[in-house]
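pinging the channel bc i need a second pair of eyes. not urgent but kinda urgent?? the chain im working w is below, pasted from the shared doc
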Amino acid sequence: MLFKRKPDWLKIRLATSGEYQNVRDIVRRHGLHTICQSGDCPNMVECWSRGTATFMILGNICTRACKFCNVTSGKPEPVDWNEPYHIAESIRLMKLKHVVITSVDRDDLPDYGSSFWASTIWTIKEINPETTIEVLIPDFQGKIEFVQKVIDSKPEIISHNLETVKRLTPLVRTKAKYNTSLDVIRFISKSGISAKSGIMLGLGETEKEVHEIMDDLLNAGCQIITIGQYLQPSKENIPVAEYITPEQFKKYLKIGIKKGFKHVESAPLVRSSYHAEKQI
């Protein structure tokens, strides 16, 4: 299937800086994974040039195969329990004031990786006590006791992406269920930690459905939302149904604020961790 031609507003700046090179070198030296690279994020150069990166823990092979995602799926390698230290040390070397951590899904592990999540957060806090932390977690198959492990490690923001509207969820996400994700967000919100979520547009959703997903997130206690354009990373992924205009994204930003979100990032190239430091 052919790729849809991208409009001019999706052109990406490719110029690099010394800070970009520094972040890249530290990531390579410590053998770390970033969702910036694995997910082909269009903002990687911009974010790395600002000295920020989103680290991906638990390896770079996911046990799921969501149709929108470019992360490799298959049988993951064994867990590397030295990884939390390497990430924490990299954060120290980068002198990051705010860091975002995400992961692949690890349905192969007894607790879906939740203990590793907690260990990573505590290690970052120990080595970088002044650094604030946002985590973008999987659904842990809806097992609240595993979400609680992340809550107990006390990151400043816990995010879980709904990704797309309810009607399209079975077509786009593997195993994940719309209502299960809402339950995870609701549980996070009730803990008192800021709850965040992200959605992609251009998969065939209607404007009414975008309004509905905003309402569902707000009713679950979500305070922060990111809204961006879905970009097909390869011919194996689900195709783009529509490129949403920058004007429409601005409209959704205003609607989100009016509905009651405390912070909204809405633009074609927005991704889950885009401008995350501003959301603290």
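so Residues 15-279 form a domain with the TIM Barrel fold (CATH 3.20.20.70). and The chain has ten helices and ten strands. — does that match what u expected or am i reading it wrong
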